[in-house]
Amino acid sequence: MLDGHFADDLARTIAVAQLPAEALTIEITESMTVGEVESVVDTLRDIRALGIRIALDDFGTGYSALSEVRRLPIDALKIPKPFIDPLGGAAEDGKSMALVHAIARLAQTLGLEVVAEGIEKPEQYERLKRLPVDGGQGFLFCRPVAADEMARLLVADSAAACVASSDGRTGSAMAGSGI
Asked: How many Cβ atoms are within 10 Å of 166's Cβ, its own excluded?
């Protein structure tokens, strides 16, 4: 990503694929910004100028300087599974919910969409519905599918490209769809 050609290569790729840039979200991790922040910020700005959204993945699990989050031109912040796992379970001590809430409020205050990752249990989903979380991902919504199955789902225009779960929730509840 730091080679200076990433945004140009990406622009050519989406043109060849005839993919609307707005349909694409690039996920980056905090560790990608270590050392060469200015170069990364420039590349991310070039990517956003194409109309592609950028999400900061695994927030809080690695290099977490809040000053860097403020500087990065991102659209969404993803709360990783290790923060979501304790919610709604016997191991929840109140601190987990408070931490997820604080991360979500921080992102919301910065004007970012908030996506919770690793939602596997209905109890987690119920707890997250009380927070300022815009979307979620996890096995509760959709199990991973093979590429050929994903292509079939996309062509079939199924909601969020996933098979409905037993209680009627459909898709992977991606960012922007509300949780």
From this structure: 5
